[in-house]
Each structure stands twice: as structure tokens, then as C-alpha cells.
Amino acid sequence: MRTSHLISPKMLLAVAGIGMASSAHALPSDANQPIRLLADKATYSERTGVTNYLGNVIIEQGTLKITADNITLNLDDKRSIKTAVATGRPATMQQIVTQEKGLAKGRANRIDYNALTGIITLTGNAKLTQAGASFSGNTIRYSLKLGDVEANAGDGRRVELVFPPNESNSQTGVRP
Fold first, then answer.
1. Which residue of 63, 131, 136, 148 has the smallest Cβ count within 10 Å?
2. What start and end residues bound the annotated signal peptide (predicted)?
């Protein structure tokens, strides 16, 4: 296994895949932006295709920003991302989905991204907010392709959903 504290071209390609994989459902200009990565340490295994970024990890590309204590990328034979796992207390992600939908923000102890399905899974003290609405629970699955959200509480707790008031509603208060 080769390891290095410097970012190799292969590792940079791995990071580039995060922005490119999710940019189909975000601002088109994000994929054309430079990628900035900061970490205390980075390792890459040619044999397994696993890249680890450790310690205060920040990845930015356009409107996409991921922060975590650690991020692990699993690459396929063509050096495209299959999965990405970010862990932290909490790990966070944010990206402008579209101008109409605005900024989506997620936080959890663990954030899993499956590039094949386009699904982000937030696990452990999970919260997802977008367009004034929020979803909280132990596990939240969010489809970048469809915009679908599934939240589960677990441990006898309940899921919390908060929706902003309807702007077209002209009534204020409750009438007797």
C-alpha cells in the first residue's frame, strides 16, 4: 500500500468525482469549479481503490461543501466514485440544488453517498433542511435524483418534520 501526505493526481480525481457525481442535480456550474480539499492527512491504496482523508476534512467545489472528521472514498476500476462515507460529530454537507429549491443542508454522525443510486443516507442525529422545511431522525435517506426523503427515528423515538407556512395562505391565526 502506498501512502502519502501529499495529494496525488489519482486522489484528486477521486475528489473530483464527488462534485461531478452530485452536480447532475445541483447547479450546473458546480462541476466546472475548482476542487479545494483540506485535510490533516490523506492516504490512497492502489490495490483497493480506497482513499482516506483524515482530520478536519473540508471539500469544496462550487456550492458543494462537505466537512467531516474523516472521509473515505471507494473507487471503481475507472477511478470513478462508487461510494463516499463521511464521519464526524457531526459530518455536514451543503449544496445549492437548484436556484428554485435553494440550499440543501445535511448533518449527521455519518453521511453515506451511493454514486450509483444518487442516494445520501444521514445516520445518527440526522437532520436535513431545504427550502425552509426540515427532517430530523436517526436515519434520513435523500434521493438527489428524485428529491424523495425518508426519515426513521428508531429507539422508540419519533421523526420530526417541520414545514414552513404556506405563503399563499392569507389567514392569520385561528378563527372561532
1. 148
2. 1-26
